[in-house]
Amino acid sequence: MFGCYLEESRDEEEKQKVDMLLSAPDICARHCRVRRREWSTSEESSELVTLVKPGKGATVTYNGLPLNKETQLNPGDLLGMGAYYLFMYKDPTLSNSPRDQKPAWFPSPVLRLSPDGELNCKMCGCPIQQRQQDPFPWTRKTIPRIKDSTGKEYIFVYNLVQEDALLNSIIDRPLEDSTEFKLTPAFLLCLCIQHSATSFQPADFRKLLLRIASQIQTVMW
């Protein structure tokens, strides 16, 4: 039995009626009951099943839907109690391990262990260490790139340690004597954004966007 009781209550008998104590403003005293019951599958055989039943006036959800009657629980089912508690059911009596009791909605792992003990990406098959040390990961990216009128791609390659100096040279020292190509700094910044998005980690990409926004704001002010 899931439920709660008031802290000032001294009735030990009432407290013992609840097996799992929950503390939230929307939890009823006897919120939800989970029990094991023998269920006949045929005239000659039966099996133990787990049943869940909401208490009177209690808010209980079963896999995201309101639960109004007693229902059988299966491994991987999500049981919500009020607005603050969410449980996933796993059957400890099954012969397979808890890791094998994954629900259908559970995402499959993106990493796998090769027979040689190497951790590989499940999608592309590349070793994780190799992907992290690859100096030109942009060659494996397939996102759209900036192209000219003939369809030729513009690629601007630099190392992460060069990024700060590169931004300073683009924004702080434009071609002051040139009367043409006024959008050259903006074009180079777009290429920097493209390279960062396809080559570096998401955290580095966000830092680049913040640096560009900050430096443009400084120039405009």
TrEMBL record:
One of its GO terms (cellular component) is cell-cell junction. GO terms for molecular function: GTPase binding. GO terms for biological process: angiogenesis; negative regulation of Rho protein signal transduction. This is FHA domain-containing protein. It comes from Scyliorhinus torazame.
